[in-house]
Amino acid sequence: MARPETRRSSVTLAGLTALLFATAAAAGNDPPGGPAQQLRARATRLFQAKKFAAACPLFEAANRAAPGEPELLADLALCQHRLGSDELARQTNLEAIARSSEPAPRLEDPRFARIRRHAYFNLSELDNASLTGSNFDPEQSCFQLEAAPGCAKTLNACGIAKTMGGRSYRSDSAMVRVAASAEGAQLDDGDVQLQPDFESLSAPSSHIPTTIDANAVLDFVVSFSEEAHSFDCEWSCEASGAVAEEVERCQSNPKLSAAARARCATTVCQRAERAPWAAVKTEQRASDACYQQAAAVDGQYACQLLYANACTGLLALRCSGRAGGERQALTRIEEYRLTAP
User: Fold this and answer.
1) Would you say 158 and 141 are in contact if contact means Cβ atoms under 8 Å apart?
2) What residues contact residue 57 under an 8 Å CB cut-off, 6+ apart?
3) Secondary structure (3-state) at 328
4) 95: Cβ–Cβ under 8 A, 6 or more apart, which residues?
5) pLDDT digits (tens, 9 = 90+) for 37-69
6) Which domains does the chain have, with CATH numbers?
7) CA dist 289 to 170, 250, 319, Å?
8) SS (H, E, C) 256-304
9) What is the sign of the dihedral through the CA atoms of 171, 174, 179 and 182?
10) This prediction's pTM
């Protein structure tokens, strides 16, 4: 089966908020400097001052003044979330996505694609944002996705989980496949590529949806973690070959008393810790290198399916990850479109 070409976009909460409140006038039924834009500007100032209770009614008024403008809905949804009205915010975000998806030419319009990305990000901030998180069960891994508002059709999804590695390394992964048909969503171990591409998190993305042929599928990593177990790296007297050799020489030394020979393990270990000799230093350097390698393979990655509409073909993901050795997690919003058969 074909896979979608993956094009990524790195985003942050601050960056998305800044884009969401861009000062460019919204196209649509309100001219630059018109009533809706004036209301939006006032609401934005209040929002940025964290006066959400005062900002939300002004965003609502701006939306009434320009009812065909989905960007104003995305603003309102974020404000509703800040007020704690998450279910209302969810419905407002879904309406913003719907308005920026229809008529059909808006699907390929970069401006409306940007508005949808803002709404997807808003959705990801709400509780229970993932469409697959609560349904995914490796023991019963196939299910239908919930139909989008206003669409009678559904998409199908299957998941699979896998654990790999041994004593020194382990990874736990789970993957979901989305397709138009139940048969197309089926997968097995031979199909699964569960290693995420951490570097792609910071790569730029197209401003329009990545197109997926209707006979293809969307595969994504719903969770991934990997780690090297530190017990393989720890230097200790008990595990040291250099210490064991020195203890053996100590115990076979005829010049020592029986009591001194009985204390060899303790005295040699104390000397190794206090003043390590060359062989012990070599082992300790190897231990340090092992820890550095362990940090390099420690990583976390996860994607949420935020939106799925079988009528428009739109699918949206939020993916976040941190590769080994990196402290800061990167996040992106991705949008795909299943084309008609």
Assistant:
1) yes
2) none
3) coil
4) 70, 73, 149
5) 999 999 999 999 999 999 999 999 999 999 878
6) 13-124 (1.25.40), 142-230+296-338 (no CATH)
7) 19, 30, 31
8) CCHHHHHCHHHHHHHHHHHCCCHHHHHHHHHHHHHHHHHHHHCEEEEEE
9) positive
10) 0.71
